[in-house]
Structures are given as C-alpha cells and as structure tokens.
C-alpha cells in the first residue's frame, strides 16, 4: 500500500475525529461550564502535542512577527472555543457542526475578496464558479439557520455559531500569514491558549471538579482534546505534505457528514430535512469556491 493511500485513509480518520468532536463537546457542557471545558481541552491537547512535536522533530523557532500573529490566532481560538461550547447549550451538535464547517469557507472567501479590494493596486477577478458558490452558500445559510422569522434569525444558537464561523474564518486568514511549520502553528496556538485561560484558576472554583466526573466525561474530553485537536489536526497537516494541498483540502467536506452521524449515535439527534438540504448545498458551494477548476479553452 502506497504512502498516498495510507495518508488518504488517515485523513478520513482525522475528519472523523473532527466531526465527532461536536457531539462529544455537547456532552461535556452538560457536566460543567464552557470556560472549564475550554481550559482543560487546551491543556490536554498541549500535553498530547508535545510527543508529536518531539517525534516528528518539528522546529519551534519563531521570530517577533510570527509571535504576534500566533498570539492573535490564540485570542481568536479562545473566543471560538468559548462561543462553541456556550452555543452547544442552545441547539443540536449535528446542526452546529454542519453550519460552522460549511459556512466558514464562504466567510473566508468574502473576507479574502474584501482584503484584495482595500489593498491599493491589487485587483482580483471573480470567477463564475466563485459567484455561484457564494450564492449557494447564502442559500445554504438560510436553510441551516432555519429562518422562519426574526426571532429565529437572532436565536442564541444561530448567533453563536455564525460568530464561530466568522471567527474561524479570521483565524484561518491570520494563520496563513505565519511562516513556520503547520504543526508548530497548532502547538503554539494551543500553548498560548492555555496561558490565556490560566487566570481562570483564580476566579473559577470549579476548575478541579472534572476529576470527580465519570468515565463518559473523560472519554468525550479525550476525543476533543487528543483525537481531534492534537492527532487529527497533525494528520491533516502531514497529509497535505503527502497527498498535496489541493487534494487534502477536499477532506474537510467530510466533517459535516461525520458530525451528523456521530451526533446520531452519541446523542440520538436526528437531523432535520432543512439541515440535510442546507448541508448538501453548502458542501457543493465550498467545492465551487475552493476546489473547482474551470477548464481553460485552448486557443489554436
């Protein structure tokens, strides 16, 4: 079996870890508050990342510019995690997993296009497939948000997860400016996130209560901290080097599917028809924006 095939299989497994983090996180917030879960997620992910960095001999040297971007990325990462866990108190994990992972690429495209526009002397042509992709992304968003009225539009679930998608889009653009090894980026963002959340120990009396929780809590915590954040993300970055960035970028399209499947088996959640339709449209929109390459007619 070739290395390419092996990493293709590993990438599917990594996407399964990412998808399963949604229902696992939903379980965790039934035990304790979002800030407690967020800290311990980062802390365990950091511990799990250290052996990976050592075994893979990842260079960790950074300069002042990289430090500033990494610190900014950690701030956005902390905000995302807080909104992520709080948002799970107000809706289904499967729907949240579909909404965030499929709407984020649309936000990334819109933010990137906006940055091109405000930079002097930089012109970016818009392709037909990108216009169609953004339009379908908006349609998908309407389906996923289940917009029946203004009250539904501004529900806590919708607000938190739309903000999560926007936050992750900004985080993605910040990380693109960091010129170090991708696994080192993940390591430093996790490390800085732990540092930023450390003061919680002084103000949150429930920080150590997790050691009294049952095996189900610890299994869910290990899924999101070790399997999803540390191992899953590392596999994805290594997979980029093995199968290529273009091919690897298609694998996250599996995350919404796995989020729905694992939410069904772990939580018993049954997705609505609108969630399935919106998710399918959003996946196709992501394909059009990021992966579809129009054929160029050859001139004779």
Task: Give a verbal description of the structure.
By secondary structure, the chain is mostly helical. It has one domain. The protein has 13 helices and no strands.
Secondary structure layout plus pairing:
Blueprint: H1 3-28, H2 34-55, H3 64-87, H4 93-118, H5 128-145, H6 150-153, H7 156-175, H8 182-197, H9 200-203, H10 215-243, H11 245-248, H12 255-267, H13 273-291
Kindly summarize this structure in a few lines.
It is found in: Cell membrane. It is a multi-pass membrane protein. It is built from 13 helices and no strands.
List the secondary-structure elements in sequence, H or E: HHHHHHHHHHHHH
Q: Overall pLDDT, averaged?
A: 83
Number of strands: 0
Structural class by sheet pairing and helices: mainly alpha
Biggest sheet layout: none
Rg for CA atoms: 19 Å
* Beta content: under 5%
Stretches where pLDDT falls below 50 for ≥5 residues? none
Assign a percent range to the helix content. over 70%
């Amino acid at each position: 079996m070739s290395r390419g095939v092996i990493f293709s299989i590993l990438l599917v497994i990594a996407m399964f870890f990412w998808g399963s983090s949604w229902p696992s996180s939903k379980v965790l917030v039934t035990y304790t508050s979002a800030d407690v879960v967020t800290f311990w997620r980062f802390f365990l992910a950091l511990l799990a990342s250290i052996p990976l960095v050592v075994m893979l001999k990842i260079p960790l040297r950074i300069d002042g510019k990289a430090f500033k971007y990494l610190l900014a990325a950690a701030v956005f990462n902390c905000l995302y995690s807080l909104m992520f866990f709080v948002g799970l108190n107000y809706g289904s994990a499967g729907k949240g997993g579909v909404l965030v992972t499929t709407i984020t690429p649309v936000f990334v495209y819109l933010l990137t296009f906006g940055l091109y526009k405000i930079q002097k002397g930089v012109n970016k042509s818009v392709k037909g497939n990108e216009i169609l992709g953004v339009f379908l992304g908006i349609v998908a968003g309407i389906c996923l948000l289940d917009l029946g009225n203004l009250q539904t539009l501004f529900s806590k679930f919708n607000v938190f997860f739309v903000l999560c998608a926007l936050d992750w889009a900004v985080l993605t653009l910040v990380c693109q400016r960091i010129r170090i090894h991708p696994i080192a980026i993940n390591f430093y963002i996790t490390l800085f996130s732990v540092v930023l959340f450390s003061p919680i120990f002084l103000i949150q009396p429930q920080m150590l209560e997790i050691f009294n929780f049952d095996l189900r809590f610890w299994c869910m915590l290990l899924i999101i901290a070790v399997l999803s954040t540390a191992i899953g993300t590392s596999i994805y970055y290594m997979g980029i080097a093995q199968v290529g960035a273009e091919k690897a970028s298609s694998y996250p399209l599996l995350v919404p599917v796995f989020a729905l499947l694992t939410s069904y088996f772990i939580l018993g959640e049954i997705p609505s028809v609108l969630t399935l339709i919106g998710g399918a449209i959003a996946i196709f929109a992501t394909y059009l924006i990021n992966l579809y390459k129009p054929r160029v007619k050859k001139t004779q």
